Predict the structure.
Amino acid sequence: MTMGLGTRAVALPLLWLCLFLLAPLLLLLKISLAEATLASPPFTPLLVAEGGRLALRISAGNYGLLFGDPLYRGALLTSLRLALAATAAALAIGLPLAYAMARSPAPWRRTLLLLVILPFWTSFLIRVYAWMGILGDAGLLNALLEGIGLIQEPLRILGTEGAIVLGIAYAYLPFMVLPLYASLRRLAPELEEAAADLGCRRLATFWLVILPLARPGIVAGALLVFIPALGEFVIPDLLGGPDTFMLGRALWDEFFANRDWPLAAAIAILLLALVLAPLLLLQRQQAKTQLFG
Amino acid sequence: MAPPLLRLDGVSRRFGNTRAADRVSFTVAAGEMFSILGPSGCGKSTLLRLIAGFETPDAGAILLNGEDLVAVPPHRRPVNMMFQSYALFPHLSVADNVGFGLRRQGRPAAEVARRVGELLALVRLEEFGPRRVQQLSGGERQRVALARALARAPKLLLLDEPLGALDRQLRAATQLELTALQRSLGLTLLVVTHDQEEAMAHSARLAIMRQGRIEQVGTPAEVYRRPASRFVAEFVGEATLLTGRLVAAAGGQLAVAVDGLPRPVQVVGDAALAVGTAVTVMLRPEALSLRAASADNAVAGSVVDIAYTGSHSLYRVRTAAGLVLKVAETHGGEAAETPVALGAAVTVAWPAAAGVVLGA
C-alpha cells in the first residue's frame, strides 16, 4: 500500500511534533512523577525490577509539595497576580496606542508599526538592563524627579513588584499592540460615527461598539502577554527584589541550585497546565473569529 | 410659506487644498425629499457629514428649525443618517441594531421592544429580529439600516447613496418603498446620490453639486429644462451644446453664430445680452427632429450612431464640419414606418424655442 500525498504532507509535521514536543513532554511528565536522588540522572527510575518483576513507582509528592507548601503556593499566586497585573497594564497602554495607530493617516501607520516592532531589534537582556538603569535608586527616573523637585529622597522602584509588572508590560507590549491593531483596523470608522449618530458620546461608543468588536484582538493580545509573563524568569530576577518569589525562579532554583529535577519538572508541568487553559480559549476565540469573517 | 426645516448658509469646508464644500447655501422644506446630485468626489457626502456633525464647517451656518447645529455634537443632533456602507453593528442582532438609538435615549426595555417590532414591520423584516447582521442579504441590510435610522424619529433623515449597494432590480423596488414610506410618514429626506435618474425620478427638488459648489437648485423639470450651466446640462440627461457668439438680438429672438454651422442658430432668449457675447446653446435631443419639413433651424449631416433604448432611439448626427448633434426619436408612428439607417444623410431641424442659452 502506498501513502497518498496528503497523508505524507500531514505525517511530516506530525512526526516533528512527536519527536520534539510530545516526547520531551512525556519525559518531563515522567521525571515529575519521580523522586530526587543523588545519582546520575538525579531522579529515581519509574520502572524498577523487584524480585524478577517490574514494578511501577509513581510519586505524586512533588505536586503535593507544590500545592501544599506555602512557599510554592505563594510562588504560584505571585506569578498569577503579577502576570495578570502586567497583562492589564499592557492592555491599558496598548489599547489607546493601537487605536491611535489604527486611526492615524495611512503614511504614518507603517512608521508607527515599525516603531512598535523596533525594540525587537535589540537584545531582550539589554533592554531589561536599561530599565535597571532607569528605575534604580540613582537611576534616570529618580534623578529626573529629584531634579524637578518633586521628591527629596529617591523612590525605591527597582526591586519592587511594580518594577516587575512594568518590565513585563514593557517587554511584551508589542504582542499586545499588534493583535489589537489588527482588529481595530478592521473596525470601520463609520461604525463609530453610526454610534455617535444614534446618541453615543465617545465613552459610550468605546464601551458599546469599539470594545466588543476589538474583543478578538484583546483576547489574543492578553494571552500573548499573560502566557510568557506567567513563567517569566529574567525580568523578575533583574528588576524584582529577593523577596519576590515566582514560579520561574522556583523552577530555576530547584533545577540548578537544588538539583531537584523532579520538582522542577513538576513546576514546568504546572506552568504548562496553567497556560494550556487560556490557549484553548484563544483557539476557540480564533475559530469564532473565522466564522465571523 | 413655512420657514424651511433645514437651511445651509454659506457652508464651507476645506481638506488641504480641496474645497469639499464651497459657500454652500440651500434650504430643505419639512416633508420634502431633497437630493444632492453630483459626480463622485464633488463633496456631496461631506455635506451630509457636516449636517450629521461628523465634520465641522470652516465657515457658515447649518440651521435646523432656525437653530444653529454647528456647535451641537453629533450625538445630540435631531438628525439621523443612513450610511452608504449601512454601518450596521456586526456584534449585535438585527433587533439590537434597530433598538440601539432608543436604548441610548434611556427608554424602558418594553417600549424599546415594542418600537423595534413596529420598525421591523415597517421595513417588512418582522421575523428577522434575532438574526445576526451577517446572515442578511444586501437588500435586507439596507432595510435594517433604514429602520435603525428611523428609530429615533429624526426631524431630518440623511441618506448617503441609499441604493448604491443594491443591484438594479432591487433598486427600483426599494426606491418605490422609500418614496411611499417618506409620504406616509411625512419624512424629510436629504439624499446624496450620483445617479441622476434616481435623483430626477423621485426628488421634489434637487441640488446639482460640482467641486464643492452648488451649481443649481430646482425641481427636476427646472433643472432639466433650464440648466444653469453647461455642467448641469451635461450631467442631467442628454444634451447637445453649441458654443458660439451672439450676432443679433431682436425682440427676444437671438441669432448665434456657431463654428461649423453655415447659418446662425435661431434661439428664443434673453434680449439683454450684448451682441458679440460668447454663449452656449443647449438642445435637448427630444426637441430635435430628423423629419421636420420646415423649422427655424435646419442642419444637414449623417447618422453616425444609433442607440436603441426601447421607448426611443438616440441618434448622433455629424455635420460636414464635424459637429455632433443628438436627436431622440420616439418609436411608433412615423419612425416605425421609415426607420433611419446608420450612415443615412439627414436634416436635423428644430424650432427656435427649443434652444436654451446658457451663460458660458
